[in-house]
């Protein structure tokens, strides 16, 4: 396995739920777009990594100056996240080794800490399957009846919230996504495709502040998280928000 991981960052989404004039990855926090914060955090953890950045073919907002990696390539994004990841894997075919580790990270998760990134990479270094950052479910879980009322209270025992990055061997991830597509499976993350092969990805406990920017209020919350991380003595390897 190559020591430096491959990084795949899907960033082709339109972010319609944000109700903004541009995709959410280009909304600003602390004077920089979300995408720049996310790439900076990844670069601090893995400065020698090779990056595949998946962008919409008609993207008019992207600036290459936001990419801190020396070895990176722009890949055309797809209609869905899985399409973007598949395009990235195809783009590095012949260059990536079968056993190279590929970490896929949501561009809308700028608050992932360097410590979590480094620890995930270390845990997966010798894992034959791969795995993902995740946190145990802390809230009481309700199942809706489809009409705005509760139909049941579900046990949260053993339930985890899936986060990113999610990391798997290049060959295994290619096979998992290829077979999922052939079977018509809905793939919401890389782990679910690997699970469909009968494999059990490793759950690596991460921090709860690795939030995903999805709704308008998330942007302000993420900015507060970044500021708190920068001010925290325990976050000694955080990214300086000033760049």
UniProtKB/TrEMBL annotation:
Is Nucleotidyltransferase tagged as a keyword? yes
Q: Which reaction does it catalyse?
A: 2-C-methyl-D-erythritol 4-phosphate + CTP + H(+) = 4-CDP-2-C-methyl-D-erythritol + diphosphate
| Positions marked as site (Transition state stabilizer) | 17, 24
Report the transmembrane regions from the record.
none
InterPro entries of this UniProt entry?
IspD (IPR001228), IspD/TarI (IPR034683), IspD/TarI_cytidylyltransf_bact (IPR050088), ISPD_synthase_CS (IPR018294), Nucleotide-diphossugar_trans (IPR029044)
**What Pfam family does this protein match (any one)?**
IspD
UniProt site positions, description: Positions MEP for the nucleophilic attack? 156, 212
Q: What keywords does the record list, in alphabetical order?
A: Isoprene biosynthesis, Nucleotidyltransferase, Transferase
Transferase: is it a keyword of this entry? yes
Write down the PROSITE patterns for this protein, in alphabetical order.
Answer: ISPD
Q: Which Gene3D superfamilies match?
A: Spore Coat Polysaccharide Biosynthesis Protein SpsA, Chain A
One Gene Ontology term of the molecular function aspect: 2-C-methyl-D-erythritol 4-phosphate cytidylyltransferase activity
E.C. code: 2.7.7.60
Q: Which domain of life is it from?
A: Bacteria
Q: NCBIfam families, alphabetically?
A: ispD
As for what it does, the entry says: Catalyzes the formation of 4-diphosphocytidyl-2-C-methyl-D-erythritol from CTP and 2-C-methyl-D-erythritol 4-phosphate (MEP).
HAMAP family assigned: IspD (MF_00108)
Query: Belongs to which family?
Result: Belongs to the IspD/TarI cytidylyltransferase family. IspD subfamily.
Q: What is this protein called?
A: 2-C-methyl-D-erythritol 4-phosphate cytidylyltransferase
This protein's encoding gene:
ispD
